[in-house]
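Homework-ish question, so no full write-ups if that breaks the rules, but can someone show me the predicted structure for this set?
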Amino acid sequence: MSDLSFTENLTSSDITIEGTVGKVVAEDAKMSMRNVNVFYADKQAIKNVSLDLARNQVTALIGPSGCGKSTFLRCLNRMNDTIPICRVEGELLLEEQDIYAKNLDPVLLRARVGMVFQKPNPFPKSIYDNVAYGPKIHGLATNKAELDEIVISSLQKAGLFNEVKDRLDSPGTGLSGGQQQRLCIARTIAVSPEVILMDEPASALDPIATAVIEELIDELKEKYTIAIVTHSMQQAARVSQTTAYFHMGQLVEMGKTEQIFTNPVHTLTENYITGRFG
Amino acid sequence: MNRTTTEKVVKSLKQRHRKEKLFKAAGFASVCFGFLLVLTLISDIVIKATPAFHQHWLKLEIDYQQEWLGVDSLDYEKLESADYRKVLRRSILAMMPEVSGRQDKRSLYKLVSNNAEFTVRDALLKSPEFIGKKKNVWVMLDDDVDSYLKENTEFSQTGIRISEKQAGWIEQWYNNGLIDKQWNTEFLTSGDSREPELAGVRGALTGTMWTMLVTLILSFPLGVAAALYLEEFAPSNRFTDFIEVNINNLAAVPSIVFGLLGLAVIINLFGMPRSTPLVGGVVLTLMTLPTIIIASRASIKAVPPSIREAALGLGASKMQVAFGHVLPLAMPGIITGTIIGMAQALGETAPLLMIGMVAFIVDVPMGVTDASTVMPVQIYLWADSPERAFLAKTSAAILVLLTFLMMMNTLAATLRRKFEKRF
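A: Not a homework solution, just the prediction itself:
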């Protein structure tokens, strides 16, 4: 039996996904999604997914490549709006507010739901301007002193301030990869969002920079609700309280992180987290 | 790797290296060939242009006799309209008493430029105390004399109308040290003229500046805005596809067609004044726009999407993303596209012929609604003139045009460097 057919067996359609196993409803939900379907033109990328993001907790979305976890994450602050062929159906609520409501401005939504991307993407501006950009466009600071305070406190929260305090005017693109990603987190925090979405924030970083980011995520959950997409199961296990396992656009299983990693219910989840495929 | 494989690789390696060497050599040869061509062209132009930068002058002792001038008082207004031609001619005759006969006298007078009498007038107006007295005045020599002296050839050669007698007089003056060669500053400070020795590029150069200004002011914002709209805001549907195809086609339309459009629509329909930098600029804008739009779109497309996402993710509006992030990052490419379009417009003649910018205009245009011509049209006009002196003027005008182009490019390169940032 070749390797390929071995993987096929593990993920074959014989293993049925009948709805989601586990607990998708949180007691204190910051965001709650029900029956979400996402289509790219005719292709369905997300099939009937329901889940809650618990307040001040880290929810990890895991699953093999192309399972739709990033697509789902991008629905939560309507980043998918930029893709013309993408269509989102279902009920997505942020504190009882329908985020796909016609009268809701995505600009406002994105100020409340921030996002950190896979590849560090600082603006080609100074470190200071990178962080100050969000507060500036939203008019959060009325004067320079206030802006300075926001920038400094954001950099402090992102654990970057001590490293860059002497060179706030140097370009953000000149920092190392890990520093750039923390700069991006600082930039997101500066707008004081309620939810932070992270799309594989450490996948382009070395282990030490990753550890720093993970530590940061752990601290950030005191103030923010966080959803993180990750390829690394160890990372999910380390930083999250709740884990959701996606497979082929479906939410297979969701539950407490310890339970998912120690005692998965669904066969697919078990095959994935035991590292038999993925 | 077993032995045969290694052998095969070694064999193919030789061939690959040979190919690389061949390509390098061919590339170097083509670069050299191109450089040689440019060098030949430029040196040819420079050599041909050199005579135009000098002009021969004649020292005359002008006798400002009141009787000849036809004035009896020092009235400034009367002095201005006095008969200086008589003064000039009598003074020349006084210097050459041996010349007699109507025909000889006329050919003698012909040796000085048409504007010599104005030089004589200006000299007196500047210091009126010389009235009734004699004064040395340098006057310009006629272009035929100038060419004759510069080319150091036999008289009555093609294009140089100097008779044997005239050649003798010139030699006499020359030997007496009455003829002096000076820098031809008139070339840069005066407008066009039928007399080659008086013709300058100032009119055409100013016209070019006005035309380029109108073109830049119209085409840059329009082109960039169109590109930005098409790339960042427009929905991708049949309509935008149709527009895209049309823009690409427009870039390939022969420029004279734009001239016809300018004549039919801008001049005849809208009634804008013909032969003006305003109309020229509008026509050249039509021609330049597709170039700028295509280059700007390519440059906007090349801005990494991660930057757009970063800004959108922070809650920036589409407008803020486009103007705050995409445009600054695309600016170097946009400037390159603009300079290519502007350089094209700078050298364009055909469409301007259609809107009357080919007219003979002596005055330097003072604004965009003054009739004027442009450098390439001026070059075309001079190249078409029979006088020998215009040959050098044509080459000199080409040099001026090239210098203008280089200055424009340097400015663009400086701007570009300012906008270039790492990302």
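Now go work out the reasoning yourself. Hint: Residues 202-419 of chain B form a domain with the MetI-like fold fold (CATH 1.10.3720.10).
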